[in-house]
Amino acid sequence: MGARATRITREELLTPPEFQGLHPKEHQAARVGGARIELVRCGVETRLGACYQQVPVRLMPPFVIDGESASLLYLINLTAGLMDGDGHLIEIKARAGTRALVTGQSATRVHPALASYATQQWAVEAEDDACLVVLPGPAIPFQGSRYYQRARVELAPSPRLIWGDIWFAGRYNRGALSERFQFERIVQDFEARRAGRLIYRDRFRWDGPWNSEEVDWYFGGTLASASLFISGPTPEVLPEAEAGPAFRRSIFRLDTGDICMRWSGNPTAVTADLAVQALRLAGAWTGGPEAAPWFLDSTGLAPNHWFSTPVVSE
């Protein structure tokens, strides 16, 4: 284990200016936890190297599935979501030659804030020849919630990495009890660097609750928004921008050679398309242009994960 087994403390979690003065509640429901994860290559497989986990975050050993070039690593939150004052720190180091999808087991529910805020903070490093996809899963902000998500990605000169974010309107499908855009404040701060140089930054602050004009401005009048940051070889053919009844997709080629994709639309459709685009590109990186996407067509993985392609009934 070594130094990486050191306990994660609240002092390691950053507080953004927007939440200064909101001290975390010191009660049993407000927990600091997380994981420090090293991914290493063992033969042709990706396994855990040094690893530390701290309640309420738990890891399952990476799934190695026949016919898949990558391993699947789940991060599990043992509680019902992020409570007021909760803080998670997730550190990931993908060593050279590793191939992995790191994801949450379900959506992240951000519960109402009474006196503080909830936060999840990521620090990701990828060495040369690593191929890493990080999809934390959809975020569902409850009424009155405050949430800070921070991610810092450090890339060597030539790894391949995909990071995905999905934001839902809240508990939007509960009839008269639905909570749509009723959060108090959300701050998201993402930065990626390659060989120490800043190549991408995406930061926003959303102050709620939103009225219909604000929903139109930020979410295009829909119930979900999402984005992918893609760093790696640019495929010859990218999916086209799309403006259909279920979702809208836009594609931005950055001057660094990286790609940003953005969505708005129906939550189920947005989630499915983001997963398809991310895992299809990862499959092309590791298996060539005609390769199957990671995990979506696997016979060893049931289609009941949040990133699975929805089954359409006849």
Description:
It is built from 2 helices and 19 strands. It is 9% helix and 42% strand. The mean pLDDT is 92. It is mainly beta. The strands form 2 sheets. Strands 3, 4, 5, 7, 8, 10, 11, 13, 16, 17, 18 and 19 form a 12-stranded mixed beta sheet that branches. Strands 2-1-6-9-12-14-15 form a 7-stranded mixed beta sheet, with no helix packed on it. The chain starts with 31 loop residues before the first strand and ends in a 27-residue tail after the last helix.
Summarize the entry for a quick read.
The chain is mainly β and 314 residues long. It is built from two helices and 19 strands.
List the helices and strands and how they pair.
Elements: E1 32-42, E2 45-54, E3 57-59, E4 63-64, E5 71-77, E6 87-94, E7 99-104, E8 108-110, E9 118-126, E10 131-135, E11 138-141, E12 146-155, E13 160-168, E14 185-194, E15 197-207, H1 212-219, E16 224-231, E17 242-243, E18 247-253, E19 259-265, H2 267-287
Parallel strand pairs: 1-6, 5-7, 6-9, 7-10, 8-11, 9-12, 10-13, 11-13, 12-14
Antiparallel strand pairs: 1-2, 3-5, 4-5, 13-16, 14-15, 16-19, 17-18, 18-19
